[in-house]
Amino acid sequence: MPLLSLFNRSLLDRAARPALEFAGVSSTFGEIEARSNRLAHALRARGLQRGERLAFFLQNRPEVIDLWIAAVKLGLVLVPVNVLYRERELKHILADAAPVAVVTSPDLAGFVPAGVICWEVAELAAESAAQPSARLAVGGVPETPLALIYTSGTTGASKGAVLTQGNFAANGAALAREWRFTEEDRYLATLPLFHVHGLANGVHCWLISGCHLRLTERFDHAKAAGWFEDYRPTVFFGVPAMFIRLLELPAEVARAIGSRLRLAVSGSAPLPAEVHEKFRQLYGSVILERYGMTETLMNISNPYDGERRPGTVGLPLPHVSVRICDESGAPVADGTSGEVWVKGTNVCAGYWQRPEATAAAWTDGWFRTGDIGVRAADGYITLQGRRSDLIISGGFNIYPREIEELILEQPGVREATVVGVPDPVRGEVPVAYVAVDAAVFDEPATVAYLRSQLASFKQPKAFVRVDALPRTALGKVQKRLLPSWQA
Ligand code: MCA
Ligand code: AMP
């Protein structure tokens, strides 16, 4: 079914129902329908045509949702940008995607590189208010691109995954069904809307099921207990760092929250089996872990009914085929580790203007995820690591090479490598190992430089000095041989 038809179940058929609450302000589905129509007219008036790209660089707010729905209606391609990115990171994405403009807010506009057109989100909303509320019937077919979402895939260079309306429709419909969403649900949305977890899963399960959504600007562990108490959600989606934070709540508070929570979903990074168990004990709720990627949306999920097995990501979703393959691409036997390959209506159309990267990531129609996994005889899949040295911190991805290259530019640095070290809350944090000329290397200046160039979650937690990096005979750094580091 086309994505807009799925949305119509709520936007048109449940027009009078309360839909969304943000900062104490509520909207019905009918109001969201009218607002997104007005915004579509305003975007048209600013010259945007079907197929054109428009970036957004915004904290969570209802305007992001309006923009998403307007893009579906107009056949536009949105480019979500992480709000923690700084000018250098934005420059790459905006130069590559070449959007007509970036929708942003005054607090973030200063990070947008000079020469890029910024549209102020509040001005756009004010301008929309004067536009007609009737639909602009442009729409799209399943193949119509809807988003370019930047991710590094299995290599270091950030590329835009071209996700279509059909990808979001297939993924959203499958998740809403598999996870038993109904219009009675109350979904607490604290995940960022600039990533697939919050956007493709959260927003789509909500719009397709017609349940109620409370949106927060971001996750804040100091406020989380209050939100759960006050909103009484039945559904919560989070990254492991959020569930680890939730373990800090007093037992009686946790038990009351858990008694109302019918579904807690974790993903984006491995959920330690110990956290799964502690959450069950404290909240009386068994976390459902699932696995996805920007390029593929969701692939594999533990079942709603049936065993949610800790440490595993479960079974392939109904619209997804999964193979575990050896280096030659041949499927391996159950119990043997290999690379996870996926195929299905969830998989993106390729990388934006990167035919070589696209060719490298797909083989015979199968997308090679770069994740290493193993399938048990009963079908449950366990992820065991990645082929690349990606670090995942609090659910945000970090490519060591990006940080290493910046450190190597600093005076007095002979060698540098960055590795992920275990962190009790964020899973992993980056630490730099450097071989330096001590008389020249200025650590505070390097830290200040990295702060100006990189998102906060990419900042190395320490600079560990070594005489030289351990290398193979071919010169490759052997990260496993580095001395261990403790905070
Ligand atoms: C985090 N920070 C932010 C925001 N989020 N700052 C401003 N706005 C935000 N929205 C910064 C904080 O300022 C702080 O910076 C650092 O991140 C950690 O914040 P803290 O309050 O200590 O939070 P925490 O308790 O450590 O939790 C961090 C977090 C964050 C809120 C869980 O990591 C997060 O939002 N993660 C979600 C990532 C996500 O959605 N991933 C999905 C992508 P400083 O360090 O300077 O103090 S992967 C995906 O989509 C695939 C497909 C999948 O499978 O889902
Ligand atoms: P991204 O490229 O930001 O979409 O991140 C996707 C990557 O996150 C995947 O390739 C996995 O390595 C990782 N990931 C997502 N969900 C899980 C999970 N449940 N367990 C382990 N890793 C995960």
Sequence-ordered SSE layout with sheet pairings:
Blueprint: H1 3-11, E1 18-22, E2 25-28, H2 29-45, E3 53-57, H3 62-74, E4 77-80, H4 87-97, E5 102-104, H5 106-109, E6 118-120, H6 121-129, E7 145-151, E8 159-164, H7 165-178, E9 186-189, H8 196-209, E10 212-215, H9 221-231, E11 235-238, H10 240-246, H11 251-260, E12 263-266, H12 273-283, E13 288-293, E14 297-301, E15 315-316, E16 320-325, E17 338-344, H13 355-361, E18 362-363, E19 366-375, E20 381-386, E21 391-393, E22 396-398, H14 400-408, E23 413-423, E24 427-436, H15 443-453, E25 463-465
Parallel strand pairs: 1-10, 3-4, 3-5, 5-6, 9-10, 9-11, 11-12, 12-13, 24-25
Antiparallel strand pairs: 1-2, 7-8, 13-14, 14-15, 16-17, 17-19, 18-19, 19-20, 21-22, 23-24
The chain binds methylmalonyl-coenzyme A and adenosine monophosphate.
Residues 59, 83-84, 191-192, 195-198, 218-219, 221, 239, 241-242, 245, 267-268, 292-294, 394-396, 425-426, 456-457 line the site of methylmalonyl-coenzyme A.
